[in-house]
Amino acid sequence: MNAYDWLVNLPIADADDACRVIEVSFNNGTRKDYYRNGTFQYFEKGDLITVEGVAGFDVGEVQLTGEIVRLQLKKRGIEEFSPDMRKVLRRAGDRDLELSKQNKAREAEALIRSRAIAKQLRLNMKVSQVEFQADGKKATFFYIADDRVDFRELIKVYASEFKVKVEMRQIGARQEAGKVGGIGSCGRELCCATWLTDFKSVNTAAARYQNLSINQTKLSGQCGRLKCCLNYELDTYLDALQGFPENADLLRVARGTATLIKKDIFKNLMWYVLPDSNKQYPVTIERVQKIRSLNHQNIIPEELEAVDVTTMKQKEVEPEFVDVVGHITLKSLEKADKKRHQQQRPQQQRPQHGQHPKGLQKSGDQQGGQETGQGQGQQRQRPQQQRQAPQGQQQRPRPENKSGQGQQPNRQQQNRPNPNRQQPPRGQRPSGEGEAKKD
Fold first, then answer.
1. 3-state secondary structure 14-52
2. How many CB atoms are closer than 10 A to CB 99?
3. DSSP reduced 3-state for 30
4. What are the domain boundaries of the chain?
5. Is 90 exceeded by the pLDDT of residue 325?
6. For a 10 Å CB count at each end of the chain, is N or C smaller?
7. What predicted TM-score, i.e. pTM, was given to this entire model?
8. Chosen CATH of 102-171 out of 3.90.79.10, 3.40.50.2300, 3.30.300.20, 3.40.1440.60
9. Residue 322: how many CB atoms within 10 A of its CB?
């Protein structure tokens, strides 16, 4: 039940008027108390300090300081300047912490032993928790009992067994659940262990107003009592039920007397059941009021005129499933993919993009004795041949490139005179030129 210190960052206007009381928690926050800081030391939240105890000292953790403590004192009805308030001694040292750790380790064994002693004495009580003081001179036994317990003999046995001063404190089942802690059916930490400070009485009428089934296992919490959360929405239900007609538990119709079974405050419907069937009929509030007025006039209507709940409910449009895998792409990745696909394209399909001269195609067709694999192999070597050729000169076509797939000059380069080109002797022509002129 921690309180948030929302005033911790505010500057102190008057140091003399500041609150000198500190809220200190013990045993991991299961118990809290208030102590006056008579020292000149300033303590912050989380500091371990040594405070006055019963005939000794105790070690606790600072929980709240400053002006927010005054609000807590007012809430709990504690006077700030009470002379009975204990004081803060000092900041906890290594010796204090070591002694507190040794005595805290005795609590688990003392709890088992104290329960066995109470059982031997045949006392109708349950010891839920044992808390030792830091110096080991006092022990507090928290117990649960339905009736009054005479534990005068029990205190003597406890004092001789544990060699401490014994204090017995009775708590309720809900307070025990707050000390032990746990997870509720809602999946969250118990309210009594986190923020709930006062426990209001809960009865089954709260469940009936909320149309809950009276099931003890479902309505009970970790403590075995009715859940505290049954009171959270009770006021909302009571306000909503004021709009429903009263004395409408029985309605007379032609088929018999309809009996009210539940009220739906969300849809403003009243559910009735007829004696000849187990079917439940939802009826609107206006229709119920009209049937009541007719019954007062000794007029029995034919039917209840139940409402079709399925048509009243709006259908929720479910979004269609969309597979977004692969839909998100980047332009840089698309460019890289296109470039990679162009490089992996088969080399034999590249000449199809450009049209060769007819003469060259014909010369390749006339000399088609070359194998396809040889032409492909020469086609792969074509870039190297272009790199080796000097700039401004053309390589003379070789006889193995007669398949039409090898390196061929363009039409413009054929007609353009090349001054650097060696003229062949008369009577000799390069292969391919004669056939092109014939065409």
1. CCCCCCCEEEEEECCCCEEEEEECCCCCCCCCCCEEEEE
2. 16
3. coil
4. 21-92, 102-171, 178-239, 244-312
5. no
6. C
7. 0.56
8. 3.30.300.20
9. 7
